[in-house]
Design brief:
- The complex is a heterodimer of chains A (about 220) and B (about 260).
- By secondary structure, chain A is α/β, with parallel strands linked by helices.
- Helices cover about 30% and strands about 30% of the residues of chain A.
- Chain A has a single domain, classed as 3-Layer(aba) Sandwich (Rossmann fold), CATH 3.40.50.300.
- With about 260 residues, chain B is mainly α.
- Helices cover about 75% and strands about 0% of the residues of chain B.
- Chain B contains ten helices and no strands.
- In chain B, helix 2 packs antiparallel against helix 3 and helix 4 packs across helix 5.
- The longest helix of chain B is centred in the middle third of the chain and has 32 residues.
- The radius of gyration of chain B is 22 Å and the shape is globular.
- Classes of the chains: A alpha/beta (about 220), B mainly alpha (about 260).
């Protein structure tokens, strides 16, 4: 049984078709690189995976059941989504780190927070920093930590390293690959050709809202 | 009121010459507002004369049921106007009606129980007019703000939703921002009372012969009641309307 399955999924907005008749199966533990020209519908594909939007036609299954059979909030807790431009809310990093705990009504897990900050080569002092004073790379790493505090089953990444320098990119790549080895399924949109083939086991090419190819790399 | 200065018709006719000044400026500077000024003045006179006679008639009725019905009519009109500012909000009329009604009831109850005013038409209707009018403006501002925030802060809301948050924690900043927007004009005007302006009610009382000390008591009451109604109505309206921006699957709806 596939972890995530698209069955003839189409998505249109304002009568403009963005995705047409997509059918694809994603298995648990997959690391899929998603490539394609700008405006081809890659981000819309990830938004559908995270249930931030619903298909106008077709259906998406998660662990064999239709998305609509799940509570949207529970579904999104299992499927983490990192945006291309990370959005940090509130004034401090702490507010962002505490948010996933507060929506679950649990106390902040200091050990887990420290663990993730260490993985992303950051010190715990960052918690008190003002979000406005962070660099793009720092913001992206905080956003990733925020999404990973409660281990998701699927991690959706939308060009998260496109604005990062080489060092930051390397840090992020290392964390993502190690998470994938632990069993987290990764769907990663990237424009970097080398990156797209280096870690992934499958390469999904989307063009003009349609699947052009699904290549098995490993 | 002692020493009230009743205005006679001749005085009113002479003061109407002030309109000529406005017309002259419009004509002189080619503002092309002459037609609007004349329509505005004629309408104001006709509407006020009608309202004056209606109020004179209503104030004669001491029946509280009739007063309450009139209040509901005023609230409905205010709610209808406020709802027009929030076309994206589902059940905007019902939400506005409920918000203004609760705000008005709470404020009037405190005023009546504290014996600041009596449930008599000649006191309730003008006081409610101020309360309801202020709540209507506050709600209009709330709706405008909430609609534009849900359009402009899509990233913030979707980021929170993607973390698994429900729609309330995802919208809380927008709700707070909108309530604040609705309340700020009332708070700002309270801050400048007596410094920048002598408000209409106080001016009216003084002109009618009340002592300024008596007039400020009324004005302080008006300030309290406007703050209370604005906060209650804005709070209820924003907390009831944010849901309109989501569908049943807790996804943010595209707003144009």
């Amino acid at each position: 049984m596939s972890l995530l399955e698209f069955q003839n999924v189409s998505f249109a907005n304002d009568d403009k078709t963005i995705l047409k008749n997509l059918s694809v199966s994603i298995d648990q533990g997959d690391f899929i690189s998603i490539v394609g020209p700008s405006g081809s519908g890659k981000s819309t594909f990830l938004k559908l995976c995270s249930h931030l939007i619903s298909p106008t036609n077709g259906k998406i299954n998660f662990k064999g059941n239709n998305f609509i059979d799940y509570s949207p909030t529970e579904l999104r807790k299992s499927i983490a989504y990192c945006f291309q431009t990370p959005y940090l809310f509130g004034d401090t990093v702490m507010e962002n780190i505490n948010f996933p705990f507060s929506i679950r009504n649990v106390k902040l897990d200091q050990k887990r927070v420290s663990e993730l900050f260490f993985l992303f080569h950051m010190t715990i002092d960052y918690l008190n920093k003002d979000t406005k004073n962070l660099s793009g790379g720092e913001k992206q790493r905080i956003a990733l930590i925020r999404s990973l505090l409660f281990k998701p089953e699927i991690l959706l990444l939308d060009e998260i390293t496109s604005a990062l320098d080489v060092d930051n990119t390397k840090i992020v790549e290392n964390v993502i690959t190690s998470l994938n080895k632990e069993g987290i399924t990764v769907l990663w949109i990237t424009h970097n050709l080398e990156q797209s083939r280096k870690y992934a086991n499958k390469l999904l090419a989307i063009e003009a809202g349609e699947i052009k190819s699904l290549e098995v790399l490993k | 009121m002692n020493g009230s200065n009743a205005i006679n018709i001749t005085s009113l006719l002479i003061s109407s010459s002030l309109v000529l000044v406005t017309l002259f400026f419009s004509y002189w500077h080619k503002l092309k507002l002459e037609k609007d000024i004349i329509i505005g003045v004629v309408r104001a006179v006709i509407q006020l004369v009608i309202v004056g006679y209606i109020l004179e008639y209503i104030f004669g009725f001491k029946n509280p049921v009739f007063t309450t019905l009139l209040l509901l009519f005023m609230i409905f009109n205010a709610a209808y106007n406020a709802a027009k500012r929030g076309k994206a909000i589902k059940k905007g009329l019902a939400i506005s009606f409920l918000s203004i009604t609760v705000g008005t009831i709470v404020t009037l109850t405190i005023l009546v129980l504290s014996k600041t005013i009596h449930y008599e038409p000649y006191q309730i209707i003008p006081v409610s007019g101020m309360i309801i009018g202020n709540a209507m403006v506050a709600l209009g501002l709330c709706y405008k703000q909430i609609t534009s925030d849900f359009k402009n802060k899509r990233d913030e809301v979707e980021t929170k939703l993607s973390l698994g948050a429900d729609i309330l924690p995802s919208s809380i900043e927008i709700i707070r921002d909108s309530i604040k927007t609705g309340m700020l004009p009332t708070i700002d005007s309270a801050k400048t009372l007596g410094i920048v302006s002598l408000p209409g009610m106080m001016t009216g009382l003084i002109l009618a012969g009340s002592s300024p000390i008596e007039a400020i008591k009324y004005q302080i009451m008006v300030t309290f009641m406007l703050l209370s109604t604005t906060s209650i109505s804005s709070f209820i309206a924003c907390y009831l309307s944010y849901r309109s921006f989501f569908n049943s699957r807790k996804q943010l709806i595209f707003t144009k």
